Amino acid sequence: MSISERRTYFRALHERRQLFVMPNPWDVGSARLLASWGFEALATTSAGFAWSLGKLDQSVSRAELVAHVAALAQATNLPLNVDSERCYPDDPGGVTETVALLAGGGAAGFSIEDYDPVTGTIDDVGIAAERVARAAEAAHQLSEPMVLTGRAENHIRGVDDLDDTIARLIAYRDAGADAVYAPGLTELDQIAAVVEAVGVPVNVLALPNGPAVAELASVGVRRISTGSLLAAAAYGALAAGARELLTDGTSRYAESAVPREALASAFE
């Protein structure tokens, strides 16, 4: 599919009222493997990508992110959603220029969040909504609009306030977000409350202690992503293998390696 066709298809995935799973690769290889297994869309992970560069989350430059987006968009034919953090409001051109660069890189959608890593706090909802509005204007004026996701970061930043989260998501919806996302929610009744309140497609982060896909579908969740979990699991396997080599001198870790046939199929 062309980039334009991927954007059309990505919007259709959100409009069809059926849940889809959108895993988060962190490099070209993981993107191609995931695409080969039948997923309908992919998304970047800010943390996973940062780790692949030997950096911590929230420290990747805009130029690095845009180059990463272009590489992943070229790697598969699937729509690519971008974890673009705050959309770099302090870089030249701010949010509007970031949206243009992501579009030029081949993104089908992107998210904008309300956590400020400089202060370590959640942005004022009014300021965050204004940023969403700027992103929405830039995304929706494209000939084939990108899907904009407004993110409320409360529950992964130590703010366990569902009422505030819902109020923020509604504000971001009203500012032009096509979908909303509150990563960190794990209680099905709370997720159901969000779905009922916001009235637009809701993304949920798949977590070890969270509901299963079928349960999320039963309360109307439209999209599930994995965030940094797949990358963290891959790095966890690397760490376990390294420990085994250092402590036991054995290589049993290789027993769980991905089959060479899967690599050949995905990378040919």
Q: TL;DR of this structure?
A:
The chain has eleven helices and ten strands. It has helices spanning 3-15, 28-36, 46-52, 62-75, 94-105, 125-140, 162-174, 188-198, 213-218, 229-247, 260-267, and strands at residues 20-22, 42-43, 80-83, 109-113, 115-116, 121-122, 147-151, 179-181, 202-205, 223-225. Strand 5 (115-116) and strand 6 form a beta hairpin.
Query: Structural class, from secondary structure content?
Result: alpha/beta
Report mean pLDDT, rounded to a whole number. 98
Query: Segments where pLDDT lies below 50 for 5+ residues?
Result: none
Output the radius of gyration.
Answer: 18 Å
Strand content: 5-15%
Order of helices and strands: HEHEHHEHEEEHEHEHEHEHH
Distance between the termini: 18 Å
Q: What is the topology, as strand order, of the major beta sheet?
A: 1-10-9-8-7-4-3-2
Shape: globular
Counted by DSSP, the helix tally is: 11
Helix content: 40-55%
* Sheet of most strands: 8 strands, parallel
Strand segment count: 10
Question: What does the model show?
Answer:
- The model has no long low-confidence stretch (mean pLDDT 98).
- This protein is globular.
- α5 packs across α6 (125-140).
- The longest helix has 19 residues, at 229-247.
- The chain has helices at 3-15, 28-36, 46-52, 62-75, 94-105, 125-140, 162-174, 188-198, 213-218, 229-247, 260-267, and strands spanning 20-22, 42-43, 80-83, 109-113, 115-116, 121-122, 147-151, 179-181, 202-205, 223-225.
- By secondary structure, the protein is an alpha/beta fold.
- The strands form two sheets. Strands 1-10-9-8-7-4-3-2 form an eight-stranded parallel β-sheet, with helices on both faces. A two-stranded antiparallel ribbon has the order 5-6.
